Amino acid sequence: MAKITLSQLRHSYFDQPRGPEDYALKQIDLDWHDGGAYALLGPSGCGKSTLLNIISGLRTPSEGRILFDDQDVTHLPPDQRNIAQVFQFPVIYDTMSVYDNLAFPLRNRGVPAAQIDKRVHEIAQMLEVEEMLNLRAAGLSPDNKQKISMGRGLVRDDVNVVMFDEPLTVIDPHLKWKLRSKLKELHQRVRATMIYVTHDQTEALTFADQVVVMQDGEIVQIGTPVDLFERPAHTFVGHFIGSPGMNVLPCEVKEGGAFIAGQQVALEGEIVGGKQGQTQIGIRPEYVSLGSDGLPATVKKVADVGRHYVVDAMMGEQKVSAIIKQDVPEPGQAVHLQFKPEQTRLYRDSWLATAAREASAS
Ligand SMILES: Nc1ncnc2c1ncn2[C@@H]1O[C@H](COP(=O)(O)OP(=O)(O)OP(=O)(O)O)[C@@H](O)[C@H]1O
């Protein structure tokens, strides 16, 4: 396994890009550590496939370098990069048995038969497909075919990285949760460097130790699932992760404080950065509550989502969502919204602009 470094990487599909908008990848500098479990998360069109194809060697970047450990592989073809890839749809040989499918990548490399046998059984056991080893792949369900595809990706222990490109697309919804946690467990056992590409926050947050969030060809935040939830560095991360996502509310900044509709809103910490730019308050629905005072609003909608209620309230034209467990208001009711100060952040031009609250001395 290897550490992967992406250095000053940029890619445009145009021969002569005129500006940043012509770049599918704007500027990527990133280290993927040896043995890490990473997710690349972002909406359709943000550049995930472009980045994956550059790492696997299917595309050469317009600018910048890719290093595996310290070897520059920017211009190496895919077959010389020693990478395993699992795609959206199963890639297996229908006419072969499950055993032969799993053994194939090892036989190709001339691994001795006894070693192949041991490894195939190990992987089959991890994926819980041992009883299928002698079956012909053609007869398997799409779920099981994809499991075998994953097994083929994991069977070699000498690859630099295993990359998963939306691997649960064909999996039945009720089996998805099972395979999601299985993949996490597999990483803990195999300890390979893994990159999991997805637009699904649940898949990314379940699998990865570190999640790389992309938007419009740029990385907006790299962090643990908890970091991304607790302290989004960019309003896009706040909005994209969470259900419902973070409320992003225009505000005015004056005298070192933030104001909505003339009322000061307490923030997590000091306001940092410059003075220019559009300012917004970011507060997750989990940290909005209803009280006897606070920002006046009118309840628009109340949805029972099982474990709690999602209350949408309007402050003028601005919708604010709150997650409420009890004392649920009625639509049309006048309420006051309170924001938990240590979870209330200022964003300037979409980037976080409050300093983290210092831990209080005990
Ligand atoms: N072969 C291509 N030629 C021209 N433009 C492309 C090509 N492939 C991708 N793009 C553009 O590059 C940008 C990034 O696309 P990319 O496929 O990398 O995003 P993605 O996040 O993987 O999206 P998806 O999940 O839909 O594949 C998009 O604007 C897309 O239209």
Q: Which ligands does the model contain, each kind named once?
A: adenosine-5'-triphosphate
Instruction: Give the overall average pLDDT.
Output: 93
Instruction: Estimate what percentage of residues fall within beta strands.
Output: 25-35%
| Beta strands, count | 22
Strand order of the largest sheet: 6-7-8-3-9-10
Describe the structure.
The chain has a six-stranded mixed β-sheet with strand order 6-7-8-3-9-10, with helices on both faces. A five-stranded antiparallel β-sheet has the order 16-20-17-18-19, with no helix packed on it. Strands 2-1-4-5 form a four-stranded antiparallel β-sheet, with helices on one face. The protein contains eight helices and 22 strands. It folds into two domains: 4-230, P-loop containing nucleotide triphosphate hydrolases (Rossmann fold, 3-Layer(aba) Sandwich), CATH 3.40.50.300; 244-352, OB fold (Dihydrolipoamide Acetyltransferase, E2P) (Beta Barrel). Strand 4 (63-68) and strand 5 (71-72) form a beta hairpin. The chain is 23% helix and 32% strand. With 362 residues, it is of the alpha+beta class. It starts with a strand and ends in a 10-residue tail after the last strand. The structure holds adenosine-5'-triphosphate. Adenosine-5'-triphosphate is lined by residues 13, 24, 42, 44-50, 199. Residues 13, 24, 42, 44-50, 199 line the site of adenosine-5'-triphosphate. InterPro entries: AAA+_ATPase, ABC_transporter-like_ATP-bd, ABC_transpr_FbpC, ABC_transpr_MalK/UgpC-like, Mo/tungstate-bd_C_term_dom, NA-bd_OB-fold, P-loop_NTPase, Transp-assoc_OB_typ2. Belongs to the ABC transporter superfamily. Residues 4-241 form the ABC transporter domain. GO terms for molecular function: ATP binding.
